[in-house]
Amino acid sequence: MKAVDDNLFKTICELQQLPSLKTSVLGGGTSLAIRYSHRVSNDIDFFFPGIIGKIGYELVRKEVEAFYGEAVFAIDYPCDINDQFLFQRFFIRRDDTAIKVEILQNMQFYNTPEIISNIKVMSLIDIGPLKLITASSRANHKDIYDLDYITDHISLNELMNLLKTRRELYNKPEHQTIFDQDGDFDPINDPELLLKFEQPSKGSNSRPGHSNPRIDFIEGQKNWPSARSSWRRKVRAYYNSIGKEFPGIQSV
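Structure tokens predicted for Nucleotidyl transferase AbiEii toxin, Type IV TA system:
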């Protein structure tokens, strides 16, 4: 079993060659699966640093349809408020599977993207704070599993400081993304959100999400109980560092 199978890898490479996706980078769990080979990933998430708007998304649609023909289907805009609060989702049929692709915009980057296995991926400095935000809002086990691996390389304290810096740098109305439409999920002011995964909730279809919530870890890597315990230890250490009492295990 591979973290990123051949069909998914090939599709990522093909999409990154399209002119309309040239300035986007691969983010999400698949970029981390390429980096760490820690768990199976089935989806593709591309991030644009700025706003491409409906015109940019329609260009993506036209190029994807021209390249894949009938293999691409269900092209949709699950959130379509205006040119700023907008993202695209579609599926590409490969053999007996359908690969979900989501394309997000206005996700300002600190760092230059990295090239891993000939794929342009978001740097850890950028993906780490974004993972904190998504984990705080949608409480998905996969996000926590990924964060545990990220924080094996960048401490949780450092990641929280990066998130704080990000919020200070990108705090104007034009910096807002679709995630800001859901309210303020801020683990800096409310660190209990770092444990929200213990009270999982179903995410909204109008927001990006995982096609399969199950964690299929690669042999030799952490299983979910191990990663969960590791994450809780890191959160406990973070609580100690900021002088807060660590909460007990959340009820389900």
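The radius of gyration is 18 Å.
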